[in-house]
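Troubleshooting log. The previous structure file for this entry was overwritten by mistake, so regenerating from the original sequence record. Sequence copied from the archived sheet and checked twice against the printout by T.R.
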Amino acid sequence: MTAGGRPEETNLFTANDIANAKDTDLPDLLTFLGYQVKRIGSYYTTKEMDSLRIKDRRTWKRYSEKTYGDAIDFLQRFEGKSFPEAVEFLLAWNKRARDPPDRPPPSQRKERPAPAPEAAPFVLPPASENQRRVTAYLKKRGIAPAIIRGFVEAGLLYEEKAHHNCVFVGRNQENTPVFAAQRGTYDLNGASFRAGVPGSDKNIGFRLPYDSAIDRVHVFEAPIDLMSFCTLHRDMTRNAVALCGLYEGPLDTYLRENPGIKYVFLCLDADSPGREAADQLKEKYSQQGYVVSYKPPPRDKDWNAYLQHRQKCRGNER
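Regenerated output below.
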């Protein structure tokens, strides 16, 4: 499944423009966008999306979502760009000028290199007038209404205006928004739209404020898993981080900013990537002097699936 462009969008560019945009070195592009790219054998992946595979430097596949594509698709899927925005960005990135409407043959054409794109400034997507769609979606996922209201009132969650996506907002120590991740409120075959907001500080991620009276931090892969845990444990209102993947940068930052933390609970998914990441993080942070525990859900893949299972069982008992 790839994002692609609608015919009216595709017609804005020549076939040569689109070919030039697709002919983008993905490891270099992702590094520029702030991802932690690493090579494993014959393919590349990132710390943020460990199920991502780049095998020929030009195409990618994310196995956890069963999505794949080229550089244009990547920017649409994970960076929130439209098809025209993605093509324009990549042409600039590759220093390729757009073809004129009546372009001469390639042998006669002289291209002027476009300036390299600058890193996108961080701007939160416009907010909807209400939170109805987001609230309904999260309640369907089992999140308690009181938890949803609490996150909205804290400025950590809101409904995006154009597509009614959930926007999970990451705030730094000064309570300034510096990170945001979007998730669609419509799931198709178990998958929904997910994209980071351009310019986000991936070393902040999504997190709850720190309470110096608490010497521990709970760590999750996704914001919805964090909210699910809060639904199950209503006393947890502080000291939690969602990595928005498996990149440990947000946890590094949280620990560095809050030296009173002694215990790290890795509430990661109970699947192979989650267990593997837990082993690696346990070794890393244990060497730094923290007491680290892997705390997956008692059953099911992640904390939201476990929450829904618990609620279903309770419903059957009535």
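The longest strand covers residues 177-183. Archived copy saved in two places this time.
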